[in-house]
Amino acid sequence: MTVIARRLGGHLARGLVMILVVTTISFVIIRNIPGDPLLARYEKLIEQGMSPEQAERATAVLYGFMPSGSLWEQYLDYMSGLFRLDLGQSVSMPGAQVTDVLASAAKWTVLPVLVGTLLSFLVGVTMGVYAAIRRSGKLGDVLAVSGSLLHGLPQYVLALLLSAIFTTLLPILSSGGTADIMVEPGFNAAYIGSLIEHATLPIATYALASYGGWILAMKSSVVTVLGDDFILAAELRGLRRGTVFRYVARNAILPLFTILALSLGLLFGGAIFIERIFNYPGLGLLLIDSITNRDYALMGGAFLLITVAIVIANIAADMLYTAIDPRVRSGEGGAA
Amino acid sequence: MTRLLAGSYGPDNPGFPSGKDPYTERLMKRLAAVTASLGLAAVTACAGGTGGGAATDGGGGLYTTVDALKPGIDANAPINPFNPKGNAFQGYNVQWLGWTKNHLTDPNQFYPGVAKSWEIAPDQSSITIRLHPDGKWSDGAPITSEDVKLSIGLAYTQGGTAYALDPSASGTASDIKVIDDKTIKISQSAKSPNSTFVRGIMETFVVPAHVWKGVLPADFWDRLKATRTPGPQADAARAEITGLADKVISFAPAKDVSAGPFVLQRVNPGEALLVKNPYFHNAANVAPSRVKILNYTGNEQIWNYLIAGKLDSAPFTAVPADVMKRITRTPGNAVVRGYSPVGNALGFNQSKKPYDNVHVRRGLAHLIDRGKVTRIASPEGGAASVTTSGMHREAAKAWLGDGLGALDPYAADPVKAEQELKAGGMRKRDGRWVMPDGSPWKMTIHVPASFSDWLAGAKAVTSQLNDAGIDAQVVTTADYPLYLEELTAGKYDVGFWLVALGPAPYNIYQRLYGTANGWQLFGGTLRHVPPGKEGNWMGGPETLKAEGGGTVNPGELTLKLNSASPAEQKKIVATLARVANQDLPVIQMWDYVNTQFVNTTRFTGFPADDSDTLRLSSGVWLGLGMIKKR
Q1: Which pLDDT belongs to residue A329?
Q2: Residues with Cβ < 8 Å from A90, sequence gap 6 or more?
Q3: Minimal Cα–Cα distance from B8 to chain A, Å?
């Protein structure tokens, strides 16, 4: 068995245990969150003019969708469903399967966050290299300052700024939703254009908010590598500057790949503030709604999805490291 | 070493000039290309989409709004009015039999919906409904009494409105008789008649039988009959019907078949598009050809839509003063205000000291300047309560007439406050009020953190109380479900509470003398449970001595409102208002004002201030033919 296969097998076994442990912990926590969603719904119906008895009866219908039995029975029921990939029914969206609800929301989170992350990674890493090698000049200063500024700016502030600029002051982009309902859905230019237009601000916010972190991390990493002996050796051997640059870039980017893989694992956590501000119906908004409505099944499903994604991302990061770093592959470099 | 290498690659090293390295140059070019491509994509997208421009349609017939009943549009939800998330928009593609008018004292006045007219028996024991003779579904099939009957059957599975399976429940439909294709008569149980029965019937969603008929079993009506018979078969029948609830809620028709002025064309997670239903009985007077309903996740999104002039109308939304200014600056935007049968109050847990003492409650009422509190908490959406009567000021005027003036207004009066607090045994030490035994008095007002107007109001109240020598503080609860759970568990001394929830007088006084104050209606029998049990968080006494003599059981009187004649109701309401005013289970802070927004750039004919249609969705306005194209 190769080193990579051994490592993969170990990771998968540990990952599975981790998922089961986290699922159990989150199950217990979720079921013990205080608050009564049915009472809130009852009050809502009363506010709409129903008599207390009528509201009580209408609310009682929702009890049919609430899990019942002791905590242990509910846990066994939940886990047996889990092995059949049945996460139960949503209470806040009566009649809907949690898996369907999650799948529907996931697509509106994964694509923007993925594009935003990759875009910020690409630009941030490139600019980070420049910020490192030009760090004594104006370009380096500008890049470093822009990185620090954007890194320090909370996501929601950035989102509000972009929203104010591009939807109110200079209203060229849509402020909410996924596509213009007036455009016929399908594989046509107008619909795709509308999708891109609606995703532009969430992607831009995510990319700008992440860019600062990448540029600063890459700059720091490059500066460290620049100080390594092998770079001096390469210089002294008279290697071409491009070759030396590649040495620098390849070594400096290694730790960033790990961070990138972990960031991708957080894709399913959604970008709560961004989705809230741009009214973009992804997993972040879904998670907030499920907590507000105390929708246990949906909350559990969302947490499970996030857990699985992070575990897989961790494994992927480790495997990637194994693949790209010969020291790790040969077992010399220790853990990634 | 580091310094040397840094220098070799630095800008001051002429051997490695900036931007001259071919590898980095290539990288920069690639980056520029990617950026340009993305920019191009965005520009193309902007051109392809409609962008953030105003809502317009080729023929000017697009009406844009938000639906307060469906803040989160769920593209995957079924087109099903029984599903709380269903893509059935009231007034647009789903209709009640009739639309309840916002009448101050009579909850049984309606605008036509699927029903064209109706006759209510003088004793309210039955209602005979006549459907629009030319009423058709959006697929061209006629709307018949059988549709109404099936809809009633479906409503029984949900247990709401007038369709309880418990034979002892009051106001329940007991007999449904199809008289002809367009006429149906519904009677309520003679055992426990209820004045809210008519409203319960009229607020029935009507769905097409030819689409929904498979949802109910063929022997449904026999099973329903069995629920009213004595014996175990009744329990089994009730369980069977209740068991259908999930099936009804989950049912997903393949396409929308609407009785309303519009039919759903498509929906995405951000918007729903409805097109005009040519078969709607009043289609000739429905102005827009299409309606776009926008999703929102918070009030600030509605504000942005309004500022951008996108919405033709928007339902009640809490708006800060500065945002209101920006909204009203937008061309065409106008504000319409009307009666909203909701009030906000400071509720006391009378099982906690010193709030068990009526003099303390009165003293607090005299210390709080409600006008100032309202100006801070709800300047646009509220008006300071004139007094505490259990009712909104408009309803109180209509029910009590001159009697309203006889109630103590509890005007801000520090002298009277001091007298009352002293009468309650409270003492003043070093300028601060303390408990009768000399221990400190710390008053804590609880509010849910997400209710900004309640939070601002509570802070204003505590500020005033602190100035008056009472140590008062505000404690927030994470969210509303938690707030309600803790409030009903009796964990709070004082908390904000919605009152005056009309228009039915029974509903109004249930807020003060119902479950929250210990009165439970079980199997048609009223009982009073001790404080801290079964949701009794107010902890008031079961009976009260009315000023002027006599003992009153306010819970019993409240229940009587259901079966009393209008004249009797008036007397009961007068008694309850007097008792509430004297006993102060709550201090009413402000009455909500139904503040709505319209934009007259594209359409006209919106309801005027104080119109009784303001509480109905704009879909009803459109269906009634009120809105005209400009």
Answers
A1: 65
A2: A65, A96, A97, A98, A101, A290, A295, A297, A298
A3: 9
- The answer to whether B381 and B629 have CB atoms below 8 angstroms apart is no
Q: For chains A and B, what is the number of CB pairs under 8 angstroms?
A: 280
Chain B residues whose CB is inside 8 A of the A193 CB are 44-49
Is the separation of the CB atoms in B341 and B395 below 8 Å?
Answer: yes
Q: Which of B35, B100, B249 sits opposite A95 (nearest CB)?
A: B249
Q: How far is A138 from chain B (nearest CA, A)?
A: 9
B596 and B606 Cβ atoms separated by less than 8 Å? no
Give pLDDT tens digits for B531-570: 988 889 999 999 998 877 789 999 999 999 988 888 999 9
* Phi, psi (rounded to 5 degrees) for B501: -80, 80
Helices marked H in B92-185:
145-158
- Rounded Cα distance, B59 and A165, in Å: 30
Q: What's the rounded Cα separation, in Å, for the pair B207 and A69?
A: 35
DSSP H or E run through B572: helix B566-583
DSSP-derived secondary structure letter, A97: B
Q: Give Cα separations from B15 to B19, B20, B522 (angstroms).
A: 12, 10, 92
For the cut 50, the answer to whether the pLDDT of residue B158 exceeds it is: yes
Considering only alpha carbons, which residue of chain B is nearest residue A33? B482
What chain B holds in terms of domains, given with CATH numbers, is: 17-256+613-625 (3.90.76.10), 340-592 (3.10.105.10)
pLDDT in tens, B593-617: 888 999 999 999 999 999 989 989 9
By C-alpha distance, the chain A residue nearest B524 is A53
State the pLDDT confidence band at B17, using cuts at 50, 70 and 90. Answer: very low
- If pLDDT is split at 50, 70 and 90, which confidence band does A270 have? low
- The pLDDT of B227-251, averaged and rounded, is 88
The interface pTM score, or ipTM, of the predicted complex is 0.78
> CA nearest A222 in B: which residue?
B6
3-state secondary structure of B43: helix
pLDDT digits 0-9 by tens, B170-201: 778 888 999 999 999 999 877 667 777 898 89
Closest partner residue to B484 (CB to CB) among A43, A175, A200 is A43
* Mean local confidence (pLDDT), A97-109: 90
At position B297, the amino acid (one-letter code) is T
pLDDT at B11: 31
Does residue A192 sit in helix, strand or coil?
helix
Taking CA atoms, B90 is separated from B77, B95, B617, in Å, by 15, 6, 7
CATH 3.30.300.20 fits A98-173+201-335, yes or no: no
The tens digit of pLDDT for each residue in A294-326 reads: 888 899 999 999 889 889 888 888 887 777 777
Q: How far apart are CA A332 and CA A329, in angstroms?
A: 8
Asked if the Cβ–Cβ distance from B481 to A40 is below 8 Å, we say yes
Distance from the B341 Cα atom to the nearest Cα atom in chain A, whole angstroms: 9
Q: Tokens 């790209």 map to which residue?
A: A324
pLDDT band at B217 (very low <50, low <70, confident <90, very high): very high
Contacts of A100 in chain B (CB under 8 A): 76
Q: Which residue of A has its CA nearest to B535?
A: A39
The token pair that represents B251 in the structure block? 């049912």
